Each structure stands twice: as C-alpha cells, then as structure tokens.
Amino acid sequence: MPRRGPDCRARPVVVWAEVGLGVVPATRSGRLLRDELGAVNASLAEVCTDVLLLVAGLPPRLEMSSPDLAEVPRVSTDFPYVAPPSDAVRREAVARHGRLTKPLGALGRLEELGVWVAACQGQCPPRPFTRPRIVVFAGDHGVARHGVSAYPSEVTGQMVANFLTGGAAINVLAATVGASVRVVDLAVDSADDAGLPDQVTAHKVRRSSGSIDREDALTDAEVRAAITAGRAIADEEVDGGADLLVAGDMGIGNTTPASVLIAALTGAEPVAVVGRGTGIDDAGWMRKAVAIRDGLRRARKVSADPVALLRTAGGADIAAMAAFLAQAAVRRTPVILDGLVSGAAALVAEELAPGAAKWWVAGHRSVEPAHTLVLEQLDLTPLLEMNMRLGEGSGAAAAIPLLAMATRVLAEMATFADAGVTERDTPLPGDEPPTE
Known about the structure:
Helices cover 44% and strands 8% of the residues.
C-alpha cells in the first residue's frame, strides 16, 4: 500500500498483475514493455509500506522496510530512453521531395536516406555533412588463444600502429570519402603503450579479456569502465563537431564474442552464427563453434541484462562500442553501422538505450551469417551488398557517399517552381483541395 502524501487523506491500494512477466520477451517491443513495467514497479516500491503477493489465493506478506521518502534512492539507468528523429521534419522532407524536379520516389532509397538525415538533423533541407568521423575500437580477446582466428593476437597491436600511420584499409577508404579516423585502445594485449598518443590510450580498461568460453570477459568494475569510456568517446566526438559517426572494430578473435552476443539476443543456435571471420579453415571453424557454444551457455543466463551480458560475453572494446552507439543516439547524431562486431554492439546498445536504433542505418551486409540476424532484429536494410567482412568500419565508410548524395539531393536540387518546370497533372497525396 502506498504511503499517504500531504494531499492524500486516504490510504490507497494498488492492484497489479504480474502473470507471465518472469519470461524474457523474445521481441524488442516486448523487452521495452518489460523495462517500462519494471520502472513502474520500482517507483511503486519506493512509496509502498506493505506488499502482498497473492499466489494461488494465498496472500503472503513480503518483508520490506519503510524509510522516509526523502531517503529512498531513486532508480536510474545508464542511458535514457531515446526519442526518435523528428517526425515533423520527416514529413516536411517527404513533401519537399514531392516538389523537386523528378517523379516522386524516382531516386528510391536515396530519397528515404535524405528524409532520415533531415529528421535526424531536425531541419529541412538538411545540412551537408562536414565532419564524418570513424572511431575504431581496438581490443584483444582471450578466446583467441584457442585457435578461433587465422591470425595471432599480436596483430591487433600491430594494426593499431598501422592505423596511426595511415596504412590500413579504413584509412584509405576514409580519405576517399572525406572522413577522418580515430583509433582507441580499450583492451589491446600490449604491455608497452609508450609512444602511442594519449587519445589512443586514455580510455584503456585492461589488457585483453577473459576467454568467454570458460570465464567472464570483464569484471563488474571493468565493464562499467568500458561503458563509461564509450559514452565519453561519443561525447568527445560530437562536442568536437562530428556530424556523422561510424564505429569500427579491430581485435583478433572479436567475431567470436560478437557471435555469442548476437545469439544470446536473437535466440539463435551456435551453428547459425559461426562464420569464417579472418578466413579460418574447417578445423578452426569447428573450434570456433565449440567456443561460441560454451560462451553462449554462460551468456544466456544473463541475456536480459545488457551490462551483465557485456561483462560475461563481450569485452572492453565491444562494451565501449555499444555505449558509444547508445550515446550517439542520445546526442541525436546519426550513425552508419558497419558489420558483425558493430552489429553485435548495436544489439546491446538498443538494450542499453531503447530507441537508439532509429538513429542508425546499416552501411552494408557482412558475409558473416550472424550479421543478417542483427539486421533482421534491428529492422535495418543494408545500403550495400559487397561481400565484405573486414571490419574496421570499412563497410560503413563505403556507404558514406550514399548518405552524402542523399543529403545534397534534398538540400540542393531545384524545385519545379524554382526551375520553371511543369509539374505533374495528377496531384500528389495531400495536395487535393479540401472538400466542403
């Protein structure tokens, strides 16, 4: 029973049905409802003096204290619910496309993308992108010691150096599309960070991660530190002027924890998510399948808690990437998702910050089988189908020109009136004069 407030003379009674809510919902909407109900229950618990749990007609009383209202701690989450891009601007952008010198819909998904960008920016026509930014999250994974990759773990640190000197594929792609690249070391297994810029190492959580097929990837403190780091990195980039973000990955063995996370959140079986990663042979594929199976057994126990899931089966790099994607949405900044690892982080980010997915588009479809599960779960259609599986943000970078073109078409193309071009004879929906 809730305590009486100063304006309430009666003692109110709240009756609440909890039948069936112990099962983890299979859909995102179901999980959103579960989270909202949990928040309501927590708020009720703060102001209740007595709770009765009616089971089979019997009313056992639950033990609980009755502290002063001012002393009750407020329940909070790491991320707020994320409001979607502006619907009013979206409608305005759709209407503007109907006035441009082309048949409505003739540019297909380019029109849809331009509308999405305008809604994200909250203005129509939208602004052309001036600072696309690619952030590569680097980290090693303990499971790589068990033969799940075609490359040794020391390659991760070597590739960090390659990013810094501009020699990686993502450097070349970024320069081509007018983006810049930042690499951050969250968990590279290197004892010597001397000589690396502070911007690379400032958020480092640990060296490597636990082998998720037999132990947790992170401790409680480490997963919180990684989430804090990812959130801070997103803030740094947005505050620095980034108006389009990409989260890339670098880490030998990282497709194994990514596949576990995806299976845990989509309900898929291990064999459905095992891919070739860096190009493993059949024996490596079987070792990877076993590692994913064992990791999934542990991950499914905590799949309803995104922070616990990252601690159990993620890694500092993936945890930070998930927080980065969530915070980008909180900061109302559009993101192009990359492939498998980015997709796994995105699934968790949507759990951390429900609604964040409305601020993302999928740059491409990876050939890794688990990535298709991600796209289906997030209801995203990839912009490109290029048979890519590199990571680093490469597939997302390849899609940046499409967003740039879509934005500039909506912003710079002439209208029928501006160009003196005769419009269509048949009115568009919504153009008909009102009837009496």
